[in-house]
Structure formats: C-alpha cells, structure tokens
Amino acid sequence: HYIAFKIAEWYNAIPGILRRGVIEPLTRLLPASAGYINPRLAVETFLRGAHAPAWERVQTLLTPFTPEMQAELLARPDHDFLRRENLFAPTREQFEHWPAGPSPLARAFHVYARQFMLDDILVKVDRCSMLHSLEVRAPFLDKDFAEYVARLPIRHKLHGFQRKYLLKKAFTDVLPPEILHRNKRGFQIPVAAWLRGRMRPLMEELFAPERLRAQGLFRPEAVRSLVDAHCSGKADLRKPLWTLLVLQLWLRARGM
C-alpha cells in the first residue's frame, strides 16, 4: 500500500487523456485469479485509490466497501453519514494531524500506524493468539524503537521501491539472501476460491433472502447481486463477501 500510494502521485501526473483513454482501458485485459493475488483486482483497487484525494487514498486502498456499495447494500442507509467526508472523517483527521510539513507519504504512514495497526492487524493477532493461549510479542513495537523509527526520513523507510530498506541493511549479515530478499507475503487464505466452492453452501445459507429481511440490515437483492457477480467470475468480491459472511456468523452465534 505504501508503494501504491507513492505510485499514485506519479500516476496522477500523467495527462488525463492518456490515463483515461489508454492505460485504464488496458487494465480490463489483465488476467483475473482466485489465488493469493488477483492482478486485475489489484490494479482496480489501485486506480480507485489513485483517483481519490490524498487524505482518502489510504482508506480507499483498505476498505472492502466503497460508500456507494454501502448505500446500495444497507436496508436503511444514512446518506449523510455515508458521504466520504463524514464516513472517513477519522482518516482525514489523522492524515491532517500536522498543519504543514510532512509529505503525503509520511502522513500515510501515520494513518496506517494509528488506524490499520491499532484497530485491525494488532487486534486480530491478539484475539487469535489469546484464543489459543499463545503469548505473541512484537519487538519492533518497543516504544523507544518505534518512536525513533517514526522520526526517520521517508527515504530510509521506502528506498525507491524497496520496502524495509534499513531493516534489510541491518540484517544483511544475519539472514540468508533467500530470506532477506524474498517477496512479502501475508497470512492470507484462498477466500475467493472458497466462496465459489467449498464455502458457497454456507454463504447461500447465511445470505438467504428471508434471513436478511428478518434482520433488516441489508437489502437481499443487493447481497444476491454481489454473490452472483463473484461466483460467475465477473468480479472478484472476496473482501466484501468475506466481511459480510463473518458478520453473519457473528450474528448467528448471538441468535440473530
């Protein structure tokens, strides 16, 4: 996402007629995949982020639902709240934390640390580890170390397109090259394929129209549209469908 944020600045410097008339139509020819990375989905997500204002770019790259999708899905949408300046107000507040000075990329780092790490990644690790009686430590989040690194110039954090530049330099004599320079890979699961295969019966059960109507939260026909588009291969909607599925499992566990 940091690299996507940086590339977006360069991308927006390209003349609009070239972006809209040549580059973006070509992205529709990219292959689609249900694997770890879907090239077409990755580029589509990048383009949404690139088209967004700088303060909104981080949220656009991360969120499974655009405001428009939420307005379409919700049974009783609050259209005023779903306006970007209201829905993403916490993101904008963090991005504009400093009145002047830091670069847009430095501001993006701040947003990730204050929102994505605190409210998402670290929460997941803590809950999953505690569920299995594991003690997990994040040594790079030592207070003094984290504050020191936060003050470093951006060029030391993102060196061209090389991520974790200083970290790799520091461990050059410790780790073998195949570990030090391998591509980053998160702990993702094959959600896209599962939703089209082994988990589709569960999805159909939890997204049944009568169930959704009884809950009164989502419009059944809008959810059905997402399911059909994903299962037919017309779109890769793994993130929104997985989010809805987990919510439905949570509601069912509570008798709702």
Give the key terms.
single chain; 256 residues; mainly alpha; two-stranded antiparallel sheet
3D architecture notes:
Helix 1 (2-11) packs across helix 3 (39-51) and helix 4 (54-62) runs parallel beside helix 8. Helix content is 62%, strand content 2%. The longest helix has 28 residues, at 104-131. Strand 1 (158-159) and strand 2 form a beta hairpin. It has helices at 2-11, 16-27, 39-51, 54-62, 67-73, 84-87, 89-95, 104-131, 143-150, 154-157, 165-170, 177-180, 191-196, 200-206, 209-215, 220-231, 238-253, and strands at residues 158-159, 162-163. The protein is mainly alpha-helical and 256 residues long. It is built from 17 helices and two strands. A two-stranded antiparallel ribbon has the order 1-2. Among the domains are: 1-51; 191-249, no CATH class.
Structure described in brief:
By secondary structure, this protein is mainly alpha-helical. It has helices spanning 2-11, 16-27, 39-51, 54-62, 67-73, 84-87, 89-95, 104-131, 143-150, 154-157, 165-170, 177-180, 191-196, 200-206, 209-215, 220-231, 238-253; strands at residues 158-159, 162-163.
